């Protein structure tokens, strides 16, 4: 019997289904990235978020955010999960860390 690929977490699977129902290109891209296997997902560092965003920007990360590097811009980050270091750095820069299931508006996708 073949092993399933993709997330096995029921909350993540429900989030994928919810995003696919919206039928918007942005949410379909997010659902596709969330549906990848854990092995093929690359975590995003706060440095990459800082380079790819502008002040007061909204960013969506379909995976984990790690605290390596620095961020100096206040950004709102929606992600599947955050490391403790990443949360501290984003909040210290004046930003917000929110779970991906609260994403209701379009954001810049960083993969």
Order of helices and strands: HHEHEEHEE
The percent range for strand residues is 15-25%
Instruction: Give the beta-strand count.
Output: 5
Tally of DSSP helical segments: 4
pLDDT < 50 stretches: none
Q: Sheet with the most strands?
A: 5 strands, parallel
Ends distance: 31 Å
Structural class: alpha/beta
Give the integer mean of the pLDDT values: 89
Instruction: Give helix % range.
Output: 25-40%
Shape: globular
Describe the secondary structure blueprint for this structure:
Blueprint: H1 10-21, H2 25-34, E1 44-45, H3 46-52, E2 58-66, E3 76-82, H4 84-92, E4 96-99, E5 108-109
Parallel strand pairs: 1-2, 2-3, 2-5, 3-4
Architecture overview:
This protein has 111 residues and is of the alpha/beta class. It is 34% helix and 22% strand. The protein contains four helices and five strands; from the N terminus they run H-H-E-H-E-E-H-E-E. Strands 1, 2, 3, 4 and 5 form a five-stranded parallel β-sheet that branches. Helix 3 links the parallel strand 1 and strand 2. The radius of gyration is 14 Å and the shape is globular.
């Amino acid at each position: 019997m073949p092993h399933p690929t993709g997330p096995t977490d029921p909350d993540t699977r429900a989030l994928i289904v919810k995003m696919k129902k919206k039928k918007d290109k942005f949410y379909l891209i997010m659902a596709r990235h969330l549906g990848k296997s854990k092995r093929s997902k690359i975590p995003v560092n706060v440095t990459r978020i800082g380079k790819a965003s502008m002040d007061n920007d909204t960013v969506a990360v379909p995976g984990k955010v790690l605290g390596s590097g620095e961020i100096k811009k206040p950004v709102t980050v929606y992600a599947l999960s955050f490391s403790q270091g990443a949360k501290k750095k984003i909040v210290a820069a004046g930003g917000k860390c929110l779970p991906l299931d609260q994403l209701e508006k379009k954001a810049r996708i960083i993969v």
